[in-house]
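This is your field. Pick holes in the following sequence-structure pair:
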Amino acid sequence: MFNHFYVAALIFLLFIGAIFLLVKRNKFLQRFSIDLDIGGIIYGGIVAVYSILLAFIVVIVWEQYQNTGDRIQEESSKVFNLYRASYAFPDSTTGKKIRTTVIAYVNSVVDDEFPAMEHDTTSSLTQHKYNQVWDMIYAIRPNTENEKIWNASMVTSVNQFGEARIIRISDIDPSLPPLMLNILLAGGAIIILFAILFKTNNNSAHFLKILMFSIVIVFNLMLVNLLDHPYKGLLKIEPSAFTKILKHYKDEQK
């Protein structure tokens, strides 16, 4: 759907141009022309209603887009908590295993899962690394009271991390119902077709105004579509929160 949206936008603009020429050159269709004085009032009301609906939908998808970014930050912070908690275990083997498992998962999220989410799917390799994180937690056997406290903290972190991961993956699916997007498309087409029917003495200037207005509507619809697909397109969310963990790990290895 996402890849076809740009093609649909271009076809829409070409369709508007074809309709404009048809209306202006067809004597029968010219009978439906609207006087600017009378039709302008009706047209203003239609545009106002459409603008309110469009603004409402933009707010919805923008909030969803921001929530997706917050969930990624939450997941990465919980993963980093696991990483830092590994230093609470004096046994170098246990601590190193925790860090290795966590970093392997983070690497897979950056290299495998985010590219996969651009194609509306997830990575089986990342899922395997995720399961290994849980297996690592299951295998920890704290000996001292201090280790028991940190182990309990890690269990809490890994549960929160798992919840954040599930929600992040669920954001692959668009939050905007197809019916609502279709209403926006139909409303935009009606507004533009209504404007084409206005009487004018200068068809070239009229066409230029229609074209600019159509482009504005298409840009707004493209914005809605981009925000509704947070893992792809020009506004896709990058895994920068996870790459910071990798950078921290590499700095420690120096």
